[in-house]
Specification:
binds lanosterol, three-stranded mixed beta sheet, two-stranded antiparallel sheet, mainly alpha, 50% helix
């Protein structure tokens, strides 16, 4: 388990968090004040003071409120008791996330969802909090005012069924036999977006076995608490299509309803032998995922589910022991308390941006040790090999890629690969070590491999099925989880990475590779243009939202050779400029992601979004937007704390349209990068 810089869980447990953040915001950290009024030096000195011994930056990556319950459920189901320290820390963390009306949001800033209110309610009860506790009672009231756990969305049903608090009969079928379909079939789950695919994998195993935890007195009590009717008299089948309206992001498509009906029929006639074969197949794939990620697994949801699946199959094996032992790698102590994070870390991503900001500032030689260590982290976390039998396990190549967290996790990602490559190139002159050119060219080749047929790039893999398959999204709560389609951030990052490599290597890149890069770049341009909206913006998928997307859109077009006076870039910059707040900053609400149109942040300028807007305008045309840029620069400088940090504000990240995330270092590296670029363009940071 790790912790935020200067943070310890004993502090969290013992002290009021509000008081602590006030200290942090007052800038009482021991960082030297000697950097005077130079915001760049102050900012880098602050980062230098909290750089990890491994060269990377470790930080909070919290936000979703359905992850920690999974951690607690997994321990309960496999009978692995949590230590007292974990227990009390978790109770406090869960309480802190509760809304005033007793509900829990899908994420920390969200209004109540039945999904998360039920999961957190059950989690608190399994941690030993009594039913008459005031917070538990408030949650209970909210649950019953919203139709009870009977109409929880499907992901909640899976969890409750595993806990023996729901019937698998109330779930639409998730048969493991789907994996035995011919691989050419468009419905084969190997074609799904990897995060969706691994969840389907684990759920299909548990569903296929109708796995349920043994009933005990606490679970029996919960069966009474969660439903309006007696548990045994519930008509589970009739509930399959009823989902609480607060949680429903979109209505099920006709294709999905048809597929559910067909699967329901097949499930009733499934031959035993086929089921056994399918379960063995799925278990083998789960094991492969665990073995190739050092038991971290690609994400927190399949980590918890896979651990239960393995335990149910072989409770005493060495493999299961290792899967359980790796669970705390997702825990992190941050201001909210002890959380289960959204990934095992965001280290490569943050360290990469810090590298770019430092290089842009021209101060890298002053921070020689920090620069060198940063480079070492980038070096040591490139993925060097493909996974074992990658095609059999539906994996793209990995060699040469960079992951979002670290090499141990191992799943490389398109934009993380581009970032790792750019960070390596940017810091190489300041480092006393050197990543072999062949390894950097592996990254180039992997980026080229990943380009989709439409000319764009998706997140982890080359697109495997048409976007129409999105119609089979059965999650109810998340948008766009089925297909890894081309997106603005990924396409922009890939072409920027390729352009950086081409510029760095010159003729040494080789004629053949040069032609491939040129062709790839030319094919990317129309995709970027097609994704731009009529108002000049791009919708972001992984950051909030149009500010983030438009920054990537502009830089992507520039990387494919568009000129700053290209009408698409002019319109995009105009879109950004028009959104500047009265305080000189830019602030976008997370509601933009859900509504899919720009919504201003109620609190005005936000540090990270201001930095994205400035990076966008400075890249597009520093001259045309001088006044707006100068006001934005002033906003960032004024908000910087005496210790060089910036205050923690609202959420900056998102996934699958509805769930928000906190990227702890976005308040540092993006402002520093923007200020560095502003200084380079002659703006005053005074
Ligand atoms: C992430 C984190 C990193 C993020 C970027 C690299 C920033 C992005 O540019 C591409 C998409 C990616 C890799 C991404 C995808 C979705 C993730 C993995 C997450 C937001 C972190 C958590 C989330 C994951 C899906 C959470 C579990 C929930 C499910 C719906 C399975």
């Amino acid at each position: 388990m790790r912790a935020d810089a200067g943070f310890s869980i004993t502090n969290v447990v013992d002290q009021e968090v509000a008081g602590m953040s006030a200290d942090l915001e007052a800038g009482l950290d021991p960082v030297s004040q000697a950097e005077g009024s130079d915001p760049l030096r102050r900012g880098f000195s602050y980062l230098e003071s909290i750089q990890g011994a491994h060269g990377g930056w470790t930080g909070d990556y919290d936000g979703p409120l359905f992850l920690l319950p999974g951690y607690i459920f997994a321990h309960y189901v496999i009978g692995q008791p949590l230590g007292d320290g974990d227990r009390s820390a978790f109770v406090m963390t869960l309480r802190r996330a509760q809304n005033d009306d007793g509900s829990f949001g899908l994420h920390l800033e969200g209004d109540g969802y039945l999904f998360t209110t039920v999961l957190n309610y059950v989690a608190l009860r399994l941690l030993g909090v009594p039913a008459d506790d005031p917070d538990v009672t408030r949650a209970h009231r909210w649950i019953h005012a919203h139709g009870s756990a009977a109409i929880i969305p499907s992901w909640g049903r899976y969890w409750l069924s595993i806990l023996n608090l729901y019937s698998w009969e109330g779930c639409h079928p998730v048969p493991p036999e789907l994996w035995l379909l011919p691989e050419r079939a468009p419905l084969h789950p190997s074609r799904f977006w990897c995060h969706c695919r691994v969840v389907v994998l684990a759920v299909s195993y548990l569903y296929g076995r109708r796995f349920q935890a043994p009933l005990d007195p606490l679970l029996t009590a919960l069966r009474r608490e969660l439903f309006a009717e007696p548990f045994d008299s519930i008509d589970w089948r009739a509930l399959r299509t009823s989902v609480c309206p607060t949680d429903r992001y979109f209505a099920p498509s006709r294709l999905l309803r048809f597929a559910n009906a067909v699967l329901g029929q097949i499930e009733q006639r499934m031959p035993q032998g086929l089921r056994a074969k399918a379960l063995a197949f799925v278990l083998d794939h789960i094991k492969h995922e665990q073995l190739t990620t050092n038991f971290i697994d690609i994400g927190p949801v399949n980590k918890a589910l896979d651990t239960i699946a393995l335990w149910s199959a072989e409770p005493h094996s060495d493999h299961t022991r290792k899967a359980i032992a790796a669970m705390p790698q997702y825990l992190f102590d941050c201001e909210r308390g002890r959380t289960m994070q959204s990934y095992n870390s965001s280290e490569l991503w943050d360290t990469g941006f810090i590298a770019l900001a430092l290089a842009e500032s021209g101060h890298a030689s002053e921070y020689a040790t920090m620069a060198n260590e940063t480079y070492r982290f980038i070096d040591e976390n490139q993925v060097l090999e493909d996974v074992d039998q990658r095609e059999r396990y539906y994996r793209d190549p990995s060699k040469g890629g960079w992951p979002f967290s670290d090499r141990a996790h191992g799943w490389p990602i398109v934009d993380c690969t581009a970032l790792g490559l750019m960070a390596a190139l940017a810091l190489e002159p300041c480092s006393n070590r050197r990543i072999e050119p062949a390894r950097l060219l592996d990254a180039v080749d992997l980026l080229l491999f990943w380009q989709n047929d439409d000319g764009g790039w998706g997140t982890y893999e080359k697109q495997r099925v048409g976007a129409w398959l999105e119609a089979l999204n059965a999650s109810e709560i998340f948008g766009d989880i089925m297909v890894d389609v081309s997106q603005v951030e990924l396409t922009s990052s890939a072409v920027q990475g390729l352009a950086a490599a081409r510029a760095h290597f010159g003729d040494r890149i080789g004629d053949e590779r040069k032609h491939r890069i040129d062709a790839a770049t030319a094919r990317a341009a129309p995709v970027l243009r097609a994704l731009q909206r009529a108002d000049g913006s791009w919708e972001g998928n992984w950051g909030i939202c149009f500010t983030y997307g438009t920054w990537f859109g502009i830089c992507g077009l520039l990387a494919v050779g568009a000129k700053p006076d290209d009408p698409a870039i002019v319109r995009a910059a105009e879109f950004i400029r028009a959104k500047q707040c009265a305080d000189g900053g830019w602030g976008e609400s997370h509601k933009s992601c859900i509504r899919r149109e720009y919504v201003q942040h109620p609190e005005g300028g936000q540090v990270a979004m201001t930095a994205w807007a400035l990076l966008a305008l400075l890249s597009a045309s520093p001259q045309r937007h001088r006044d707006a840029i100068q006001r934005g620069v002033r906003f960032l400088c004024e908000r910087q704390l005496p210790n060089g940090d910036w205050p923690q504000q609202g959420m900056t990240g998102v996934f699958n349209r509805t769930c928000m995330l906190n990227y702890r270092y976005y308040r540092n590296h993006f402002p520093l990068w923007a200020l560095a670029l502003a200084a380079k363009n002659g703006f005053s940071l005074g």
